Amino acid sequence: MQFEPNFWQTKSLLEMTDSEWEALCDGCGKCCYRKYIQGRGKRQKLYYTRIACNLLNLETGKCGHYEARFRLEKDCTKLTKKNLPDFHWLPATCAYRLLYEGKALPKWHPLISGDEQSVKNAGIFIADGVHENDVIDWFEFVIDEE
Ligand code: SF4
């Protein structure tokens, strides 16, 4: 797919075409790892974990049942322009969150590097992920990330 050069710098998220929007995803798979919120109000904290959705391929970071994901996983969330304001739960490296917050894409993003492997090479993938079905105590799998 050919895109306008540096479209992520010249267009707002709302101005992007569907294919440009899709191309923003770096394929890290981090949005498919479980999170939980503890506390309320100012004390509220979002925790990220190494616990993956059962549909996630832990090696590739891709959904194993992409077409059927909303039917198979009731809480699977589609990232759209409409729910942009809710993207604060996305990992800090996520292109949608970065652009929404007015930040630049990192050099390892495939749109810049031209190489899908650059995400893995930059250490963005979650190492030692486990599927939710295999977990008893979530607290053992919390990772330190904002
Ligand atoms: S966290 Fe963002 S960049 Fe990574 S897979 Fe999810 S939507 Fe794509």
Detail the topology: elements first, then pairings.
Blueprint: H1 7-10, H2 18-23, E1 33-38, E2 45-52, H3 69-72, H4 95-100, H5 110-113, H6 117-121, E3 130-131, E4 142-143
Parallel strand pairs: 2-3
Antiparallel strand pairs: 1-2, 2-4
Organism: Rodentibacter rarus
Family: Belongs to the UPF0260 family.
InterPro entries: Puta_zinc/iron-chelating_dom, UCP006173
Give a short overview.
The protein has 146 residues and is of the alpha+beta class. The protein has helices at 7-10, 18-23, 69-72, 95-100, 110-113, 117-121, and strands spanning 33-38, 45-52, 130-131, 142-143.
General description of the model:
The chain is of the alpha+beta class. It has one domain (7-143). Helix content is 20%, strand content 12%. It is built from 6 helices and 4 strands, in the order ααββααααββ. The chain has helices at 7-10, 18-23, 69-72, 95-100, 110-113, 117-121, and strands at residues 33-38, 45-52, 130-131, 142-143. Strands 1, 2, 3 and 4 form a 4-stranded mixed sheet that branches. A hairpin with a 6-residue loop joins strand 1 and strand 2 (45-52). It is globular and about 45 Å long. The protein starts with 6 loop residues before the first helix and ends with a strand. The mean pLDDT is 91. Iron/sulfur cluster binds at residues 25-31, 79, 90-91, 94-96. Iron/sulfur cluster is lined by residues 25-31, 79, 90-91, 94-96. It holds the Pfam family CxxCxxCC. Belongs to the UPF0260 family. This is UPF0260 protein BKK50_09645. InterPro entries: Puta_zinc/iron-chelating_dom, UCP006173.
